[in-house]
Amino acid sequence: MSIRVVFFDCDGTLTSVKSSWQYLHERLGLWDELADAFQRKFRAGEIDYEEFCRRDAGLWKGLPQERVLEILREIPYHPGVKETVKALERAGTKTVILSTGLTFLTDRVSAELGITRAVANELVVEAGNLSGDIRINVQHDDKGYWVRRILKDMGMDKEEAAAVGDGEGDLAMFEAVGVAVGYHPSDKIVPALDHTLDNGSFADILDVLSAYR
């Protein structure tokens, strides 16, 4: 059965920056003294994911939306990303972004690349400024929920789907598709992968998927 839809992680997979959250904190001078501590508490199990996100978003309260968008526009793609997505589109393959990052980034990426659908976490804006609140649409460990939901919406089976990601947050996404591809993956997720790409262009993913036509 051929691949009809490809699910992509965004941060660190389509883009070269591992975390749009951390990038924004660093550019605003908020990482070393504040946000890094929140991340350590989350990883240690001292706070849950929703509290982690709320604390992070709270640091940006009052920032102009346009300033945030300006910073996130700096984030580049991996080489070959644009060509890969265009090739998939020409072949009639649907593309979906599932990200625990920010819609401010995934909306830009979707528009520029022509992505079919994107789901990410949304910073709340009031009167042009960030309110300090966030809508969590994608939990850190359950991208699989969105894969299953979107496949159902599209009338497709698991075996018709592939996923491309790089980190532990993508494991549930990998489990919910027929073909799991790691692009510069962390060592911890390698056992869950069908294919691993550590070097070269992102466009090498096309060679991997061509075997499933």
Can you describe this structure?
It is a single chain. This protein has 213 residues and is α/β, with parallel strands linked by helices. It has one domain (5-19, 74-210): Rossmann fold (3-Layer(aba) Sandwich), CATH 3.40.50.1000. The protein has nine helices and seven strands, in the order βαααααβαββαβαββα. α8 (171-175) links the parallel β5 and β6 (179-183). The longest helix has 13 residues, at 31-43. It is globular, with a radius of gyration of 17 Å. The termini are close together.
Give the key terms.
alpha/beta; Rossmann fold; 9 helices
Classified in CATH, the superfamily is HAD superfamily/HAD-like
Question: Number of DSSP helices?
Answer: 9
Domain unit count: 1
Determine the structural class based on helices, strands and strand pairing: alpha/beta
Number of strands: 7
Question: Could you name the CATH topology?
Answer: Rossmann fold
C-alpha termini separation:
7 Å
Biggest sheet: strand arrangement:
4-3-2-1-5-6-7
> What is the N-to-C succession of helices and strands?
EHHHHHEHEEHEHEEH
Largest sheet: 7 strands, mixed
Overall geometry = globular
Query: Portion of residues in helices?
Result: 25-40%
**Binned strand content:** 15-25%
User: What is the CA-atom radius of gyration, in angstroms?
Assistant: 17 Å
Give the CATH class: Alpha Beta
Oligomer: single chain
Name the poorly predicted regions. none
